[in-house]
Amino acid sequence: MIDSTTSSAPNASMDITGFGSQLRSAPEKTQLQLIQQLADPSEAGLDILMEFLIERRSGPATVAIGKAYQMLFQSDSPKAAEFLNTHFPTGVVPLRSERGIDYLPLQKMLAAQDFQEADRLTLQLMCELAGASAVQRKWLYFTEVDNFPIPDLQTLDHLWGVYSEGKFGFSVQREIWLSLGKNWDKLWPKINWKAGNNWTRYPQGFTWDLSAPKGHLPLTNQLRGVRVMAKLLTHPAWEARPDREG
User: How far apart are CA 2 and CA 26, in angstroms?
Assistant: First the structure.
């Protein structure tokens, strides 16, 4: 639990060293709360976030690391911008691709919490993975998903998870689907893609922020049938996923 010394963003009179120490040692849920309190654009708060990222840069990108990066990314501070450009020019999530696809624009969109545009870009990137025909038609055949390289699909999923506090991503949707006994009729309302007999209308019916239910995003193929979704959730990427936090 956060004590009274961390009830507000840090200021000049606060024990900055103590705050940074608490951030480093706290459970991830508490880390997210502490990082959120550093939204105040004070130099002291930014310094704590920068120190936290530097200390964790050799480890896996967790949701706490993603949150810290996001806070700095959205800051108006020239110092924060210089720090990110110097130490994290491609973000905090490794952008692995076997097809030479550039995932940096998606990383920046998700860091900016522009989930609607990030969702559109995700579909575009998956079409690039599928090939020229899919790029031209702007949607996927379910058979094309089988050929998605494992590193690419893991990269897409990791980006969504890290910048959504663990709420969004294909692996999150898969976990929910499995918990429901692989029942699609139960999955759709659980992630708010359907209410009763009515499919959620795109785009106005969807929730494009973190108030959405877990697993709500990404939309993959804009609800073009269950087969694409089934292929995504049973892809070998999830069995081969490397151990990581977040």
Answer: 9
Residue showing tokens 């522009």: 114
Which residues fall within 8 angstroms of residue 82, CB to CB, at 6 or more apart?
none
Max Cα distance, the chain (Å): 60
The 10s digit of each residue's pLDDT in 176-227 is 999 999 999 999 999 999 999 999 998 999 999 999 999 999 997 555 678 9
pTM check: above 0.85? yes
Tokens coding 138: 């702007």
CA distance 160 to 169: 5
Secondary structure (DSSP) of 162-215: HTTTT--SHHHHHHHHHHTTT-HHHHHHHTTSEETTEEPPTTTTS--STTSPTT
Secondary structure class of 158 (helix, strand, coil): helix
Helix%, strand%, coil% for the chain, nearest 5: 55, 0, 45
In 3D space, the residue among 244, 246, 238, 215 whose CA is nearest the CA of residue 145 turns out to be 238
